[in-house]
Amino acid sequence: MEYEESPGENSHPFDEDWNIDWDWGTNHSPSDNDVPWWEGEERLARGENLQQWDMNDEELFFEEEVSDDQEELLSESDKKFIAHLRRAEAVIKGIFDSREDHFEVVEKKNGKLKLFQSLHGKEFLKVVKKGCDERCAQLRVVDKNPYVGIYHKVTRRWEYELRAMVEYGVLAGGVSRTVNVMNKIMEEIKDEASRPIIQDFSRRADRAAKDRKKAATAIIDRCFAQRSRLLVLRVDLGYRKGKFIESEDFMKDMKMVKKEWTLMSDSLKSGKVAPNVMAVFGKLEYGVLAGFHYHLVVIMKGSGNRQDINYAKMVGQYWYSEVTGGEGRYFNCNRIKHRYKKLGIGTINYHEKDKIDALKGVVIDYIVKSDYYMSALLPSKKTFVQLSCTNKEQMVRRGRPRRYLSKV
Fold first, then answer.
1. Angle between helix 119-130 and helix 76-97 axes, rounded to 10 deg
2. Contact predicate 74/82, CB 8 Å
């Protein structure tokens, strides 16, 4: 029987979300007065009187030009925009973490000089060559991710040289000057990324992700200690297109989102949404185009529960109708589990090591990963929820001993 989508159900994940066109006020352009948030906080720490950008004010400029309420896949332009942000973050982190020279002069056998580029150097130039979307300058929330902000800050400062580098492959003055200029750019990136405020920010976010992974893995182990078969659901929970994007009060909206999540998680734990729930993991994220959305994993008892697609749909429908009153949307990952190369959802038995590794690795890693946008927008705020609905006192295995020892 063919699967039928229900009201409120997305046909695509929230990480590749809505087709929204953006506009930043009237005739807005970046200027020298646009100060990155980390520099603003550094100056405030030194007691300087600096007017910081307040997202509550700037969100007033967000304008959505899509009038109908039909969910749409990302346009090619939107996909390139999101991909650019991800590549910019990755390449800046890569350059900072590496200890090699990214550009060198190499003398060939015939005596001519050749430009050598490291992998990070090549990747940096690839990102530069693809160019920025106009929304990189229009949306100030883009640079709230400090690594994306560093990329844009440095490339704007060296725009002339980088444009020539991309077009000609070498700067005027030859290979030696090219190496000198490009390594200056690399050093500037490292200097920006090595600011104490950036490093503290990154360490906190990454340490929190590791702690979430450790705690989630321990809960999964306890679930398998109690049950030899689990049913794992993976559902994305979000909101209708444009909701919270044109926010007049970011913190007020944030309180509403977390209030609805509390209602959802309590309902999951109490059994109102689906039966025999053993554990719940949920991570709140903020997408530049998608707004607020949750990545959710629900672990149920596997014995007698095999309809994972339908249970995942029940979770999504409860979010849509009971929690958000029709304002929510959801994506049922279990309905497309046949597309995953490493399957860590659906029915998993204690002896299926590949599936358990995928659950602990691919699935949980994705749920607990660092989200630099949320970490910057809501510092020191809890964005991850884990609920163990099992009783630790009942963790002793009962019945016939397992034939194979679980390796979880």
1. 150
2. yes
d(CA 233, CA 299): 6
Cβ atoms < 10 Å from Cβ of 329: 26
Pull the structure tokens for residue 331.
Answer: 């994506």
Are the beta carbons of 16 and 74 closer than 8 angstroms? yes
- Residue 52 pLDDT exceeds 60: no
Q: Strands 229-239 and 346-349, how do they pair?
A: antiparallel
C-alpha 345/C-alpha 240 separation (Å) is: 26
SS3 281: strand
Q: What integer best gives the mean pLDDT of the chain?
A: 78
Task: Give, as one character, the DSSP assignment of residue 359.
Answer: I
Q: What is the pLDDT of residue 61?
A: 23
Residue 226: which H helix or E strand, with range? helix 196-226
Q: For residue 124, which of 207, 182, 202 has the smallest C-alpha distance?
A: 182
What distance in Å separates the CA atoms of residue 206 and residue 93, rounded to the nearest whole number? 12
Token pair 């321990």: residue: 218
Signed CA dihedral, 272, 275, 280, 286: sign only: negative
pLDDT in tens, 72-117: 356 788 888 888 998 999 999 999 998 888 999 988 877 788 899 9
* Distance from the first to the final alpha carbon of the chain: 35
Show the tokens assigned to 384.
Answer: 């991850």
Q: How far is the C-alpha of 77 from the C-alpha of 19, rounded, in Å?
A: 9
Structure tokens at 345: 């959802």
| pTM, 2 dp | 0.72
Angle of CA points 249, 70, 253, to nearest 5°: 15
DSSP one-letter code for 395: -
- Of 84, 88, 91, 166, residue with least CA distance to 133: 84
If you count them, how many residues does the chain have? 408
DSSP characters over 123-182: HHHHHHHH---THHHH-GGGGGSHHHHHHHHHHHHTHHHHHHHHHHSS-TTHHHHHHHHH
Cα(323)–Cα(297) distance, integer angstroms: 17
